[in-house]
Amino acid sequence: MDFTLPNEHIRWGLVVVVYMFLSGVGAGSLIVSVLPRLPWFFGHPAFMRVRRMAAITAAACFAVVPLAVIADLGQPWRIWRVILAPNSTSPMPYGSIALMLLLALIVANLWMLHRPHFARAGQGRTDRLGRIYTWLAAGHDGGDELPTGRARLVAQILAVSSVAVGMVFVAYTGFLLSTMTSFGLWYTPMLGVIFVLAALASGFAWNLGAAAWSDETSREPRLLRLMAGSTALFLGAHFAARLWDLFHASYVENDLWPAVRELLFERFLFSYVILELVLGGVVALALLTWVAMRGGRALAIGGSVLTLVGLLASRWNIIIGGQSISRTGLGFIEEELHLFGREGILAAAGLFLWALLIGAALWWILPWRPMSDAARSQPENETGAGTRRALIGILGGAALAVAAGASTIRALFKPNYVKQQPGPPPLNANRVVRSICLSCDARCGNQAVVRDGQVRTLFGNPYHPASTRNQPIPFETPVAEGLRTSGSLCLKGVSGIQYLYDPYRIRLPLKRTGPRGSGQFEAIGWDQLIEEVVDGGALFTHLGEGRRIEGLRSLRSFEPIDPDQPELGPRASGLVWNTGRGQTGRQQFIERFMKAYGSRNYVSHTDLCQMNWYVSNYLFTGRYNEGVPGVDQLFGDIVNSEYMLFFGVNLGGGWKPGVNTSAPILANRHAAGDGHLVLIDP
């Protein structure tokens, strides 16, 4: 059975997958770039160039990630309001502040790494650029690569802070997803750990590939083996965490496990099994392990590429897969890939191009001179034809990046919303149907937004007092103007859309087709239902049951059930109508039918539920006295009463209608100091 709710769709698409992947590559690269400054670093001279690659990669990735995040918010200036006026109860400010702090640490580490090179570049020039280099060197004499003295302590503090903030940021992203309990694939405490391990593996994999590709660093086999071993370590940990999470879900086997199993091993077979587990897991680990033990430039590049592909597929499987399972647990939502648009393939490719472009520009612009005397005499960057080629390449890449990411750029400068008058947005609907909510007997007013033949949204009716805190808009208000405002509904009322489209909702008469208790039924027509219920007979002979069932026609007799016990009443009393809550109109019809038939055995929902309330109303209004009609639902005047005394009442949920009307009225009166409220809770 494939059952999804009408409003369900995949909100976070390919662009979100890409910027989460880039945030992992950037955070992992930042950690790679600061390793030589940590006291437990293994130390290797050739690692200095890899440090530069890693630092520039981190800067390039985190120059792009905030832009994608801001564009995804729909309102570009919202990010600054989140940071400058944070709401401590929301998770958004913490992630935004961590992101800004991470950007500051990346810039500080990049400057600390290039500080001696700024000094050497400034010593060889007398022009304005030389003075800028000297100023950026901040007093460095161009000597040792690694800082000494007080600068070394500052560098180590920056390094430890970078590792901590980088891991916290990527773990925060996973933690944020894991708190969304309605998405079965995300609801796991392992998600934050998985994101951290993926970031470390992707950072080492990217820089391993860059080191193996570069002619300078690829000549250092020990460096490649060291990088490959580190990549294999973190990739193996990520691979193990993913499998552990999967095995735990299969062992627990909660309600969503069948959907998760079908998603990963059938619908996402290529991205999960082939790309993530086989190519990006088993094969990549085998290649990296070989390089770590034996070396090999080509295998190092292949292992790093497969690792990155597998980790990108992992992000796709988590982000898109988590949204693909319907909240009903009985269906799937398909992700439609488009070439254009904010979530299109071009926009996602544009993020990659931007990161590569920024990285290439920083690599070309920032001065870098090795420590050897021969290198000191060389210019810090290529000149002549080499410079022109680099400039042309950067400009060409910029043009491609702008073209591919046009929709993201547009979202950065133009808010993704339409200014309108205060109130609900214009309804995208073919029609609006007003009715009464029957999820409980408070009977609040509701409005159903119908589009393309399906109810898309339910919200409160502004004309109904129970949906407006007893302050409905005037009935004279034109319907078109009434659509500019809305009332409120509780969660049970809003979930009426799930009742409406529940696949197990009984819409036709059902007749048993198997033994009692087998749960086997078939739908029959209304004419067949009426005929068999009225006339009775041997209705289940096709199942081998010879029992004859008495119909309503023969049961309706006013002869006594037992002449010796006339108090049992006539045979017609054998008809018992047991129903749920009797709503107004329906209840009166059933009672009239039962009286006409000759049976008094009408048993409704309220013979048990809240009977204490009804009895207290009857006693208080005198209904048990002869000739006194009494009242069965007596409500207190919570709008005007000056002193209110409650016994064992949940004001937010049990006082009908509690959520929509009573609770807000009482809360507002209490906040204003209006009246006295005493709650006795024995």
Spans of at least 5 consecutive residues whose pLDDT stays below 50 are 37-43, 373-386
How are the strands of the biggest sheet laid out side by side?
1-2-3
Residue share in helix: 40-55%
Count of strand segments? 11
Topology of helices and strands:
Blueprint: H1 14-34, H2 47-73, H3 78-84, H4 92-123, H5 128-137, H6 149-178, H7 191-213, H8 215-218, H9 221-252, H10 257-267, H11 269-294, H12 297-324, H13 345-365, H14 373-376, H15 385-404, H16 406-413, E1 431-436, E2 445-451, E3 454-460, H17 479-482, H18 491-494, H19 496-500, E4 510-512, E5 521-523, H20 526-535, E6 536-537, E7 549-550, H21 552-555, E8 577-578, H22 586-597, E9 602-603, H23 611-621, E10 643-647, H24 658-671, E11 676-680
Parallel strand pairs: 8-9, 10-11
Antiparallel strand pairs: 1-2, 2-3, 4-5, 6-7
